[in-house]
Design a protein that fits this description.
single chain; alpha/beta; Rossmann fold; Arc Repressor Mutant, subunit A; 2 domains; 5-stranded parallel sheet; 9 helices
């Protein structure tokens, strides 16, 4: 599957140079000059990674991140001539996965792009964004969706992280303590909290809590995802990165 990058930079020369270089390295790249055109491009084809200047003609990279992250989880690398330490720290704390100062060494930027893609929960190794779960059901974690025929349910960021953890470890019973550590790493949570989120996922999967088919529990031990062979294969293909923070 092609790995899609979205480049946002109001400077045409910088933007076109980076688009050409990344295309030469095998990425599918769309270059845009404004937040408005970036949103249009993302709606047409959801990117795996955005490389954006800190400020553009109609706003900022942070505004774009805020808009896109309402729709799904997405990684950002800032590529900007703004070298101010405070601006860099703010971007990294608020929304950016990395920050590269222009002018840059292209080989270093390329390495950072590949590193962020490897670290992303759903990245360039995923062969199909819709992961089949069996019985016609599928999940698209980049867009935080679960579907079954014509029915599509949206997932919250926490629900998506929980389902993502299960999909990375299909067929394995994950201990309660491990799930709590991985999914609620930035805030305290209890087994009751976990139970509630499992209940929500089961409801969106159309699972019967009395006789669950997808997410099954071992009392006092943990939970296990039963999924299709395709989902098992996807789980083996994926990296095991640190899960993204909740927004």
């Amino acid at each position: 599957m092609e790995t899609r990058l979205l480049i946002l930079d109001s400077d045409a020369n910088r933007r076109n140079e980076l688009v050409r270089s990344l295309r030469d390295d095998g990425f599918a790249v769309v270059g845009v000059d404004s937040i408005a055109t970036a949103l249009e491009a993302a709606h047409q084809a959801w990117p795996h990674l955005v490389l954006a200047d800190l400020r553009v003609v109609d706003g900022s990279a942070e505004q774009l991140a805020s808009e896109l992250n309402r729709l799904g989880d997405l990684s950002f690398i800032i590529v900007s001539a703004v070298a101010d330490v405070a601006a860099r720290v703010h971007a990294l704390n608020r929304f950016a996965d990395d920050y590269v100062i222009h002018p840059y060494c292209y080989d270093e930027l390329l390495a950072r792009v590949r590193r962020v893609l490897r670290r992303t929960l759903i990245g360039a190794r995923l062969g199909d964004e819709r992961i089949p779960l069996g019985d016609g059901r599928w999940a698209d974690l980049s867009r935080r969706l679960i579907g079954n025929g014509d029915q599509v349910h949206h997932l919250t960021p926490t629900e998506a992280r929980l389902l993502g953890l299960f999909l990375l470890n299909p067929g394995q019973t994950l201990p309660l303590s491990l799930i709590l550590q991985r999914v609620w790493f930035d805030a305290p949570a209890s087994t009751n909290t976990l139970w509630e989120y499992v209940r929500r996922l089961r409801a969106k999967l159309g699972d019967d809590a009395r006789a669950p088919h997808y997410i099954v529990s071992q009392r006092g031990i943990g939970y296990c995802l039963r999924a299709s062979d395709s989902a098992h294969d996807r789980g083996r293909e994926l990296y095991h990165p640190p899960l993204k923070r909740a927004r």
